[in-house]
Amino acid sequence: MSNPLTDKIALVTGAGRGIGRAIGLALGTAGAHVVVAARTQVEIDTVAQEIEQAGGTASAWPVDLSSEAEIAALFNVIRQKFGRLDVLVNNAGIGLFGPLAEFASADLDRLYTINVRGTFLCCQQALKLMMPQASGTIINISSVVGFKGYARQGGYTMTKHALMGLTKTLALEAQPHGIRVSVISPGGVDTSMIGDARPDLDRSGLLQPEDIAQTVLFLLSLSEQAAIDEIYIRRRGSAPF
Ligand SMILES: NC(=O)c1ccc[n+]([C@@H]2O[C@H](COP(=O)([O-])OP(=O)(O)OC[C@H]3O[C@@H](n4cnc5c(N)ncnc54)[C@H](OP(=O)(O)O)[C@@H]3O)[C@@H](O)[C@H]2O)c1
Question: Is-contact 220 4, C-beta < 8 A?
Fold first, then answer.
């Protein structure tokens, strides 16, 4: 049976480490050509090499999602090199933490710029490629804080709630064009970000980045007639819902 990701072009933002790296590796191993994007060149180069060592193909492209011009340049390269985009995983995100009473508005701006505006701009650019081809899948990586509140995570929580609004509207608007839009909302995942968010947390037993990558592969394995709007994935032992 042929692999459904063979010859597909996938862009993963924030793919230099953590969850994005695992998603990039999973997509590359499953047969897609993966465009690995983030700011740190050495990290994206390493992930692209890891994909190729695993038998896949990848290109590394540096991008700072706070720059509309850099995002446009990234998508122009994809347009010129491949002429299409089948999968966009909006994974890149930052976390800045602290109680709302003391939270600096500049930090809120920074969070919003990357987590919301950057994702929004990538979605807009992806639509320009996916709408003419009448196909494509966009997967946004939100968080459990996209629907719950957590102390000391107010600014980050606000951006992930905004991402849910973006996803819900985009799913509606993109559907008539043959494009599926889903959101994955993970609980704590064992990456450097969780160390900043929850220094108090015992990290043993946390979700691993590969758990999120497997969820992405599951979404991409759906039949043509199926769509999943949202997946909430948490570590076993944490509170359901
Ligand atoms: N870890 C968790 O517990 C958890 C739980 C739920 C959801 N999430 C979400 O999952 C996603 C990945 O998180 P992670 O834990 O894997 O974080 P991470 O290890 O810190 O990785 C974040 C990735 O995003 C990239 N990035 C950050 N700022 C960027 C910018 N301005 N432009 C382009 N790329 C940028 C980083 O690369 P550069 O710094 O090199 O640019 C890096 O590759 C985030 O959206 C996060 O909110 C994480």
Answer: yes
